[in-house]
Specification:
It comes from Rhynchospora tenuis. It is built from 13 helices and 2 strands, in the order ααααααααααααββα. The protein is an all-alpha fold and about 350 residues long.
């Protein structure tokens, strides 16, 4: 590799890192703003976690949505310049932003060990940046299409779609409200395909701007349609996850699963680690494990989200009530018998004097 080419790749990686950091700041803030909007909407109508869409009328949720879009655009541009192995793990910085803002805005207390978790995320991200591969940019969408249609990646894509359908159609209606892995799993699996398609579209746009028009290739539009479909699915289930579970749980688990699957998908499709030394690959893996450790520590030291009033006072079914009748006998009444003559009699004042 020539010196000029190496310098150009380094500059591209640097641009990707800076954009990824800006993206993390916006996305981390959007988690908190959207959570506030979801809480407001849930207080006046059906929650998103149970299929409600009242949050679409909540201005605060839309502010969070715009913030996330800005962050995702920055992330989108970052993928034009740097490999997914470098850009995706830097999403850990959004967890730090989310944790700090949740501490002050959502009153989800950040413990001292949580600060250690934040530091581990920063250290791990630094290690990844220092040992990131320098990726050669494809020269056309046709070249990207060849990478996407290789047998190994087709097998991964088919497996991802199959797992997502099982989670959506079978697991979500049954376990979505009680198992965080269902909603987050859908977001993560679909998210890995989102990144691959977004990176393809981003490279096509970059090449077009440089004067090599890619709009005439049907593959460009296929990648675009896949990206839009995946993004819509991700947002839908991410809203459900945020509305149902604590932000402190959703953020680190989503990051860990999404990043792992994205790195795997990128390694299969773009062969990011091809040509790297064993020591560089080992350093990247160690950096990623450090980041995962940080997210785990951060998650484990956060206070659980208190149950809503409706959850605290929801009685068991069937509803059975005990009372002592006038003759001293104990009887049992079901809910539909509450207004019976005998039951009303027991709450009359003369039975308590």
């Amino acid at each position: 590799m020539s010196g000029g080419t190496s310098t150009g790749l380094f500059v591209d990686n640097l641009k990707g890192v800076l954009l990824a950091v800006v993206s993390s700041a916006f996305i981390g803030a959007s988690f908190i703003v959207k959570k506030k909007g979801l809480k407001r909407a849930g207080a006046t109508g059906s929650r998103a976690g149970v299929g409600g869409y009242g949050y679409l009328k909540e201005p605060l949720w839309w502010i969070g949505m715009v913030t996330m879009i800005v962050g995702e655009i920055a992330n989108f541009v970052a993928y034009m310049f740097a490999p997914a192995v470098l850009v995706t793990p830097l999403g850990a910085l959004s967890i730090i932003v989310s944790a700090v803002l949740a501490h002050f805005i959502l009153k989800e207390k950040l413990q001292r060990m949580g600060v250690l978790g934040c530091l581990l995320c920063i250290v791990g991200s630094t290690i990844i940046v220092l040992h990131a591969p320098e990726e050669e940019t494809p020269t056309s969408v046709n070249q990207i299409w060849e990478l996407a249609t290789q047998p190994a990646f087709l097998l991964y894509a088919a497996s991802a779609v199959a797992v997502s359908l099982v989670l959506m159609l079978h697991c979500s209606p049954r376990y979505g409200q009680t198992n965080i892995m269902v909603y987050v799993g859908i977001c993560s699996v679909i998210g890995s395909l989102t990144v691959m398609s977004i990176k393809a579209v981003g490279i096509a746009i970059k090449l077009t701007i440089e004067g090599i028009n890619q709009a005439g290739y049907f593959q460009t539009w296929i990648f675009a349609m896949v990206a839009v479909s995946c993004i819509i699915t991700q947002l839908n289930y991410l809203n459900k996850a945020l509305d149902t579970f604590n932000t402190a749980m959703v953020s680190p688990i989503y990051y860990a699963m999404f990043t792992t699957l994205t790195i795997l998908a990128s390694a299969i499709m773009f062969k990011d680690w091809s040509g790297q030394s064993a020591s560089s690959i080992a350093s990247e893996i160690c950096g990623f494990i450090t980041v995962l450790s940080g997210t785990t520590v951060l998650h484990s030291t956060r206070d659980p989200e208190p149950a809503s009033a409706a959850d605290l006072y929801t009685p068991l079914s069937p509803k059975i009530y005990w009372h002592i009748q006038e003759n001293g006998e104990v009887s049992v009444n079901k809910e539909e018998d509450l207004l019976s003559r005998d039951f009303v009699a027991i709450v009359r004042q003369d039975y308590f004097v």
